[in-house]
């Protein structure tokens, strides 16, 4: 059966999809609306909200906290925060600030984030100059860093000189960590599951080396330890061999700005893909992008890890 791609929702600029395997719903962010969204594929219902205290501030990810119903970890600018949202139309509320990063770089912002197999939060930053006229001015090179936050809120800087911190994934044995810096592709690190430390950074996949236009963005992994990466400005999702870096499959997406992706559905065999609208059409909120379902891939993903926060 050939894969089938279907647009299930019209959105303006989707990011940070996270499938909650307990609720069987997809959470994702909307960059242009500064909104948090929940999509139920069974009912096709979408509910969106914004953060009550910060209505005009974007949060790049929302990860359920283990053992705390309606509580999530998210990020606002350079702050890692705990958020309460009951999944209804009431506004979400920031309960507390857990940790801060890059306080010496006020222009920086936190981007993508995920919990590792032990519930530790991994997230990274990038520099942002909204008055920039090109990519190097808009996002100054090597201003960001990669961080780990432990359950007690302690922050550890794992790597630096990052330009655009993006997708993250771990292999099934917890021995390899994959990480995207969008300007140079996917990196591969040795990973210590007991400590959460990374080492031995290697460049693993660079799009231009494979004749691919665009930049790697969001990242996920299937149970065969193959990577799936969103190609921003490339209208593509790529399946990549997790050992060799070879391209195993290309799936075309009707929108150019493919931002991120996550496995979901009852059997975790549906790939949900978020996209963004063209920068020149930011005022056209409902015309630029969609949330896609890709079925028939013949693979499954892992249940997304929840964050452990004391």
Explain what you see:
The protein is built from one helix and 24 strands. The chain is mainly beta and 310 residues long. Strands 1-24-23-22 form a four-stranded antiparallel sheet, with no helix packed on it. A four-stranded antiparallel sheet has the order 2-3-4-5, with no helix packed on it. A four-stranded antiparallel sheet has the order 6-7-8-9, with no helix packed on it. Strand 16 (185-191) and strand 17 (198-205) form a beta hairpin. The termini are far apart. Residues 282-286 have low confidence and may be disordered.
Major sheet size, sense and barrel closure: 4 strands, antiparallel
How do the strands of the widest beta sheet line up side by side? Answer: 1-24-23-22
Quantity of strands, as a count:
24
Instruction: Find the structural class using helix and strand composition.
Output: mainly beta
Percent helix: under 10%
Give the count of helical stretches. Answer: 1
What distance separates the N and C termini? 45 Å
Gyration radius, rounded: 18 Å
How would you name the oligomeric state of the polypeptide chains in this document? single chain
**Poorly predicted tracts of residues:** 282-286
Mean pLDDT, to the nearest integer, reads 94
**Proportion of residues in β-strands:** over 45%
Shape: globular
Would you list the SSEs in sequence order as H and E? EEEEEEEEEEEHEEEEEEEEEEEEE
Characteristic key phrases:
310 residues, mainly beta, four-stranded antiparallel sheet, 1 helix, 24 strands, 1% helix, globular
Secondary structure elements and pairings:
Layout (H helix, E strand, L loop, with lengths): L3 E8 L2 E7 L4 E6 L4 E6 L4 E5 L12 E3 L6 E6 L2 E6 L8 E8 L7 E8 L5 E7 L7 H4 L5 E6 L5 E8 L2 E6 L5 E6 L3 E7 L6 E8 L9 E7 L5 E6 L3 E5 L6 E6 L4 E8 L5 E7 L12 E7 L15
Antiparallel strand pairs: 1-24, 2-3, 3-4, 4-5, 6-7, 7-8, 8-9, 10-11, 11-12, 12-13, 14-15, 15-16, 16-17, 18-19, 19-20, 20-21, 22-23, 23-24
């Amino acid at each position: 059966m050939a894969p089938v791609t279907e647009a299930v929702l019209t959105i303006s600029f989707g990011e940070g999809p996270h499938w909650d395997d307990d609720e069987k719903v997809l959470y994702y962010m909307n960059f242009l609306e500064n909104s948090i969204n929940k999509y139920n594929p069974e009912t096709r219902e979408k509910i969106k909200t914004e953060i009550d205290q910060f209505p005009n501030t974007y949060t790049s990810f929302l990860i359920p906290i283990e053992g705390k119903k309606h509580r999530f970890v998210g990020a606002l600018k350079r702050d890692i925060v705990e958020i309460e949202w009951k999944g209804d139309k009431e506004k979400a509320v920031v309960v507390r600030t857990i940790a801060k990063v890059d306080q010496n770089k006020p222009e920086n912002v936190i981007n993508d984030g995920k919990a590792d197999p032990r519930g530790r939060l991994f997230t990274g930053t990038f520099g942002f100059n909204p008055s920039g006229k090109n990519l190097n001015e808009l996002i100054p090179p090597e201003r960001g860093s990669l961080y780990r936050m432990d359950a007690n809120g302690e922050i550890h800087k794992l790597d630096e000189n990052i330009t655009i911190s993006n997708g993250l994934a771990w292999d099934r044995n917890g021995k390899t960590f994959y990480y995207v810096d969008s300007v140079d592709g996917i990196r591969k690190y040795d990973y210590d599951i007991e400590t959460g430390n990374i080492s031995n950074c290697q460049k693993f996949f660079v799009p231009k080396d494979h004749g691919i236009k665009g930049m790697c963005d969001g990242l996920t992994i299937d149970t065969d330890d193959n990577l799936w990466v969103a190609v921003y400005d490339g209208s593509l999702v790529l399946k990549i061999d997790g050992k060799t870096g070879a391209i195993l499959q290309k799936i075309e997406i009707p929108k150019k700005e493919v931002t991120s992706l996550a496995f979901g559905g009852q059997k975790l065999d549906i790939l949900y893909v978020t996209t963004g609208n063209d920068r020149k059409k930011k005022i056209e909120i409902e015309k630029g992008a969609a949330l896609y379902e890709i079925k028939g891939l013949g693979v499954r993903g892992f249940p997304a890890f929840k964050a452990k926060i004391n």
